[in-house]
Amino acid sequence: MFEIILVFILGLVLGSFANVCIYRMQRNLSIVKPNSHCTNCNNFIKWYDNIPILSYILLKGKCRYCKSKISLRYPLIEFICGLLFLSMYFLFGFSYILIPFCLFAFCLLVITVIDFDSQIIPDEISYFLIVLGLLVSPLNHILSDTFLPPALTTQYNIGSFNIMLGDPVLKRIISSVLGLIAGGGSLWLIGCIGEKIFGEEAMGGGDLKIMAGVGAFIGWDKVLFSIFLASLLGSIVGGCMILFKKIGRRDKIPFGPYLAISSFVMLFLPSPATIINYIFLFEENLLIKYVFTNLQNIR
Ligand SMILES: [Zn+2]
Description:
By secondary structure, the protein is mostly helical. The longest helix has 31 residues, at 168-198. Strand 1 and strand 2 form a beta hairpin. Helix content is 62%, strand content 3%. The protein has a two-stranded antiparallel sheet with strand order 1-2. The protein folds into two domains: 1-94, no CATH class; 124-268, no CATH class.
């Protein structure tokens, strides 16, 4: 119980920082200096007025000094970040890998809101995810799940060196690098084809970089499936919005939020390529066995 509360509170605090990042990154301001201040009267916010959710309730959603309204979005994002951290705790337990995945969820949240607001994805967040994803890949057991062709998992003898590609740690590192290439490369390809057909930029460079980062965390097959899922979600929501005349046919809709949501969902699903591999092996009940062992090994 202590662990759950600790992780949730940490999520709320990081959620508060997410609000700072969301506001300042869109305006190209520093995220560390100066301290938080009211956007209306510029008075600095005291620490006791900056407690996630609680301060919002105590201040009744108004600035202490000028009484201007504070957007409900701030406590809401803090709360969502708390929930995201909790979900990561239930997926990974209280382990080393929990911290990088909490940061992963944090980045996806920040990207979703910034892209929704201003149709940009800050490069800093993508680069951060790429570096972090590669760095923690040896510990990242989500990547153990990825299907790799047999050529990449057998033992090679080069001179006196014994290169054991089937080694679990090495497999995770290879999966991470392949994920990075698949995530960034596939969107780059889609962008190139889109540009040839429509004659204008179809895919933002931000989407490409962020999916390279996501790929480093979740592997090539999950990242490709995330992109597929995001396109599906995006076209359903976009189609509905055009249907109900909320947007025009030529309006651009941000793709980042859909990419972020589907990447997050893919964390909880088994690796698509492994499932396909099992189905095509036609081995009896292997799929069911796979799901079961996966559920047991989820910690
Ligand atoms: Zn104020």
